[in-house]
Specification:
By secondary structure, the chain is an alpha+beta fold. The chain has helices spanning 42-70, 123-132, 187-196, and strands at residues 9-12, 19-23, 28-34, 113-114, 136-143, 151-154, 161-162, 167-174, 200-208, 216-220, 232-240, 260-261, 270-272, 281-283, 287-289, 304-305. β1 and β2 (19-23) form a beta hairpin.
Length: 308
């Protein structure tokens, strides 16, 4: 360090009497203390004056040596000799005392957000609370019997201190699914719809005598009922069986002799009325014979008996 540059230390304050001020090597600092305090004061001042006197002596000696070196018989000047250095400034170089402890500014802690309690609030209310606390949110829906849209729980406890903008996960109630209406649909389409709604499906068949087979007749529980996901739903499917017609009843016993019209009730024998026969039964003609003629009434075989 050049003698003209005072080293860091405490020196008498050039601006205020009775104080000493700290010199940092380049400029005066704002740090002061009473003159005479340990590490500074009159001792430093005396050392500064002594150093100033020595500096003047060295400056004069350096000038003499330089003049001798420049004389013709003195040869070339050696630039690396100490006497070849530029004369020191006449400005006194004060002797430093112990350096002061410069206080380090305390680092301010970043501002934190307090997580509000939003459990059992509606989603709209929870959003407002979190926004006011400078926090973000993420929604996870979960089936629940609580009112749809109500906050069931929050993943970060209320009262926690977190960074502003932190994402808070909210578990929000989702309404329980309802049994869909599948009556009249095919088994494949209906069961697919029920499984898609989150239910398990079992199928039973019921015999019907009309309509078509393989059609869903109803469900148990009935359509529109709210059930928790995974609940069993029974599907009743038609099984068509057409009834068999009963055989016709046997014909009633006839009270007429077959082959005659009009009817001749059965008898031992018939003769035509007004003829020579002896009966015991007599038929009044004409009698039409359509088959056999057990009584022998159609003598000429023309299909008409007792025609007179």
């Amino acid at each position: 360090m050049s003698p003209s540059s005072p080293v860091p230390g405490w020196y008498p304050d050039p601006q205020q009497t009775g104080l000493q001020r700290y010199w940092d090597g380049n400029q005066w600092t704002p740090y002061t203390q009473p003159l005479g305090t340990a590490g500074g004061g009159s001792g430093a001042w005396q050392r500064w004056r002594a150093l100033r006197a020595r500096t003047k002596a060295l400056s004069i000696g350096a000038v003499v040596v330089l003049l001798i070196a420049l004389m013709p018989h003195g040869g070339a000047a050696k630039t690396d000799h100490p006497s070849a250095r530029p004369p020191a400034s006449s400005t006194p170089t004060p002797t430093p005392a112990s350096a002061p402890e410069v206080p380090t500014p305390a680092k301010s802690k970043p501002e934190r957000s307090t997580v509000p309690g939003v459990r059992a609030m509606s989603l709209a209310q929870a959003r407002g609370r979190l926004h006011k606390a400078d926090l973000s949110y993420r929604i996870v829906k979960q089936y629940s019997w609580k009112p749809a849209g109500q906050v069931i729980t929050q993943k970060v406890a209320a009262g926690s201190k977190v960074q502003p903008g932190r994402v808070i996960t909210l578990v929000v109630a989702r309404a329980m699914p309802r049994v869909p209406h599948v009556a009249g649909q095919s088994v494949k389409a209906g069961t697919s719809l029920l499984k898609g709604a989150g239910f398990t499906v079992s199928v039973v068949h019921e015999v019907v005598t009309s309509g078509a087979s393989g059609v869903i007749l109803r469900t148990t529980p009935v359509a529109g009922t709210q059930k928790s996901p995974g609940s069993p739903i029974t599907v009743v499917v038609s099984n068509l069986v057409r009834p068999v017609a009963p055989p016709p009843p046997p014909p009633a016993a006839s009270n007429c002799t077959p082959g005659y019209k009009p009817c001749l009730p059965p008898a031992y024998d018939y003769d035509c009325a007004g003829g020579s026969g002896d009966g015991p039964k007599y038929a009044n003609g004409p009698i039409y014979v359509s088959g056999s003629d057990p009584y022998g009434l159609d003598a000429d075989g023309d299909g008409v008996a007792c025609e007179w």
